[in-house]
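Section 5: illustrative case.
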């Protein structure tokens, strides 16, 4: 399939006040063969006017799609169907990138693009204060699957990169009714073991880290919306044989498996479902048996989460 651009830079947009970071970054790129595809997922009032200002300048090609709020995963699906770039590069509406990011990506891609075993390239990220987000490696680059980068090379933390549009287009998110958040790993883990990435140890993305000081828990993002999404994501992964990266640190051994099943209980219980309702959603007898085995631990973690976020549990029980 022929493509009009080398890159489609995709932004799922909801925030008016931060999207200028993306625009300013793309306006300064030293490589110009790209389109900026923005999908407004029920964005804030004034977002469309802000984007129209960018379009009126006319310095970069911008495609703007408006849709009702359905969650970032639905915006991603819409963008993949509309993308005209050979390579698909997501960039959040509150982040930025270096002026030479696309030029470096393109230069590195030329070295491996004829090898169909490669899906794309990923790189390091820094936060708004210039600190590396996660870790890096001493080598200039590592060629490995996304899974092996995490488990064999211990490359952890926030990374940024692109994939072949024609490949990632084959892996769209499920869009269940009433679910407005789906874990990205539900899709990414489906090809994390199949294709290689070239990981380059250059920080090309500025990832704006929120100030969570004083929150006191790594579930500081938990809301009724994300809880429902986590519950769906774990159950979907369980029924489709997907190993979620949030629990896989080594080779999906006993500890990783226990974390997976316990978290499946944790998030499904906090949505207010009963034991029988949850078990009925599990598609195989084998998985039902293992789920039952981990039920006591799941209850313990669920109760801890519910005690930290009683308002989330209370609100979900009303739905």
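Designed sequence:
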């Amino acid at each position: 399939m022929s493509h009009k651009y080398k890159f489609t830079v995709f932004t799922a947009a909801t925030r008016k006040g931060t999207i200028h970071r993306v625009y300013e970054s793309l306006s300064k790129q030293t490589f110009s063969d790209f389109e900026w595809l923005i999908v407004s997922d029920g964005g804030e009032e004034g977002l469309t006017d802000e984007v129209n200002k960018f379009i009126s300048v006319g310095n970069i090609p911008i495609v703007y799609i408006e849709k009702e709020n359905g969650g970032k995963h639905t915006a991603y699906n819409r963008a993949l169907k509309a993308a005209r770039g050979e390579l698909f590069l997501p960039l959040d509406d509150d982040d930025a990138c270096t002026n030479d990011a696309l030029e470096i990506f393109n230069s590195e891609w030329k070295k491996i693009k004829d090898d169909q075993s490669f899906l794309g390239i990923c790189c390091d990220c820094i936060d708004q204060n210039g600190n590396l987000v996660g870790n890096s490696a001493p080598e200039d680059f590592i060629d490995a699957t996304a899974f092996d980068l995490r488990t064999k090379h211990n490359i952890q933390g926030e990374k940024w990169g692109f994939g072949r549009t024609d490949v990632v287009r084959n892996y769209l998110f499920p869009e269940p009714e009433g679910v407005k958040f789906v874990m990205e790993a539900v899709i990414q883990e489906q090809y994390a073991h199949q294709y290689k990435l070239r990981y380059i140890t250059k920080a090309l993305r500025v990832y704006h880290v929120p100030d969570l000081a004083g929150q006191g828990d790594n579930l500081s993002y938990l809301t009724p919306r994300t809880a429902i999404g986590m519950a769906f994501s774990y159950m979907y992964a369980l029924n489709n044989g997907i190993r979620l990266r949030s629990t896989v640190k080594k080779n999906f051994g006993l500890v990783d498996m226990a974390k997976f099943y316990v978290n499946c209980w944790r998030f499904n219980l906090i949505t207010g479902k009963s034991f029988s309702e949850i078990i009925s959603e599990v598609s195989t007898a084998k998985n039902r048996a293992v789920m039952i085995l981990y039920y006591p631990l799941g209850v313990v973690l669920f109760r801890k989460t519910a005690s930290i976020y009683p308002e989330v549990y209370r609100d979900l029980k009303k739905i």
